[in-house]
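Record 1 of the preview.
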Amino acid sequence: MILMTGTTNVKRDFKRKMMWTMNRRSTANIRRNGDSTEEMLRVSWYYYKMGMTQTEIAKRLNTNRVRVMKLLEGALEQGIVEIRIKDPRANLLQIETDLVQAFGLQDAIVIPTDSADVSLADLNEQLGMAAAQFLSTVFQDGDILAIGWGDSVSKTIKHLHLDHIKDFHLISLSGGMLPLLSDWSFFGKYLQHLKILPAPLVVSDTATSEALISEPEVKEIFRMWELSTYALVGIGTISADATMRKKGYISEVQQAALRRMGAVGDILGQFYDAAGNHIPFETDARLVAQSIHKIKGMSNVIGVAGGMDKLEAIKAALKGGYVKILVTDEEVACSLVESQR
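->
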């Protein structure tokens, strides 16, 4: 019995010694020579392929979770592991990042370009939906949204849902809004939150413009411009399809004159060249709108525009610093990024 007990004890002691030695070797393997490729490969395999948690890996290799995290980070940095997101929308996230970096924007929202045959109306509808979703996400209680003029802006407001927001205000940055509001169910739903300039975008003469601006109701809206949390503007072109032209605010002859002056686009009926510099024009004195120079000084100005026909106008608006957050389509976004390389 004594011999058997002694044999059992010897075996038990030998086993403990072997386990202690193996544990030391395991720890040494992890700690030897820093973060070796083999160590990072092994930890990455356990984590990404076998689905083990960091805690489970640490226990298996007799180390700690912090060590495992560092090995996983090292594997990513050294290219041992590459993470790929298998979804076509993932590419849009990279384009947005590139666009922000290329033009120093606060943010960018890029929608996919599904077809070259998409109409301008359909594109503006899609852009409006994307802009509305963005606004619904960032808008908070007590915020003020200043609304510009244009088709893409009207589509944005059409799709805007603010039921979760309390005590907010929507104010117009210009005249000419009422015709765009006529078909909005939004108009009736949020009527108590709206303050709209009761005037066209461009009036017949300077005296009329000055008289409107001196009205107490208009002055109140002007004061609220300075307090706005976000501003939403469209970006127009100097073409027959431009909303300014379609609404009769500017003629073909005037557009020809503007093109000779180097104009490529407009915001709130105020024109600018390819470098984003404002081009004074005869309609400026008859506008009922926020000054483009003040727009440049505002934070959180969201520009909603897309289509390759607007590429030059959008690019110039970004160069001029009028837009801080851009909502556009994939084709335009890629072209904008490429132009800065």
